[in-house]
């Protein structure tokens, strides 16, 4: 358990007991479900730097490789995605280009705009990275098949476009 759950337990309150945890308070159930899902993801993402290092990438480079698999991306769009200045993206892309993972291309619509594309090596690395990211944490993998099916089906409904 992590974060706010640990803090509640230290104060003598378990996040998994009492009326709030059972959903007895009408408006609390969505918040409880979201909080627990967020805690699970947060706990799992603490391992992301080590996972990125398995591929000799920084965590930011791993995010870039994942994002670029969806097609060419303008460097300015990448800067917005990463919430950083375009000059930071230049250095990041320089290092990835030196490794042969990405290449810069001029946009067909505006030659001043530089588009980023994964190279063949970058695509291969992305596939391995995504396969590794898809490995569930032990807390999920150890659930029963019935629980896993229920969780899968719930997540599909939650992610269905509105």
Would you summarize the structure shown here?
This protein has 162 residues and is mostly helical. It has helices at 3-10, 18-22, 28-45, 48-53, 59-68, 75-82, 86-98, 120-133, 138-141, 145-159, and strands spanning 73-74, 102-106, 114-118.
Describe the model:
This protein has 162 residues and is mainly alpha-helical. It is 62% helix and 7% strand. It has 10 helices and 3 strands. A 3-stranded antiparallel sheet has the order 1-3-2. Strand 2 (102-106) and strand 3 form a beta hairpin. Helix 6 (75-82) crosses helix 7 (86-98).
User: What class, by secondary structure content?
Assistant: mainly alpha
* Helix content class: 55-70%
Shape: elongated
N-to-C order of helices and strands: HHHHHEHHEEHHH
**What is the terminal-to-terminal distance?**
32 Å
Global Rg: 20 Å
Q: In total, how many beta strands?
A: 3
The low-confidence runs, each spanning 5 or more residues with pLDDT under 50, are 1-14
Tally the helices: 10
Mean pLDDT metric = 85
Largest beta sheet, briefly? 3 strands, antiparallel
Order of neighbouring strands in the sheet with most strands: 1-3-2
The percent range for strand residues is 5-15%
């Amino acid at each position: 358990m992590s974060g706010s759950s640990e803090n509640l337990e230290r104060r003598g309150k378990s996040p998994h007991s009492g009326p709030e945890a059972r959903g007895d308070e009408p408006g609390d159930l969505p918040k409880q479900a979201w909080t627990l899902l967020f805690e699970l993801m947060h706990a799992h993402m603490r391992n992301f730097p080590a996972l990125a290092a398995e591929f000799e990438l920084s965590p930011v480079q791993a995010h870039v490789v994942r994002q670029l698999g969806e097609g060419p991306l303008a460097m300015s769009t990448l800067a917005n995605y990463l919430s950083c200045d375009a000059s930071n993206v230049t250095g990041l892309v320089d290092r990835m280009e030196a490794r042969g993972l990405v290449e810069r291309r001029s946009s067909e619509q505006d030659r001043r705009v530089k588009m980023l594309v994964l190279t063949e090596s970058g695509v291969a690395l992305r596939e391995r990275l995504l396969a590794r990211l898809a490995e569930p944490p032990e807390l999920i993998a150890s659930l029963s098949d019935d629980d896993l099916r229920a969780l899968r089906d719930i997540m599909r409904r939650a992610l269905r476009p509105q």
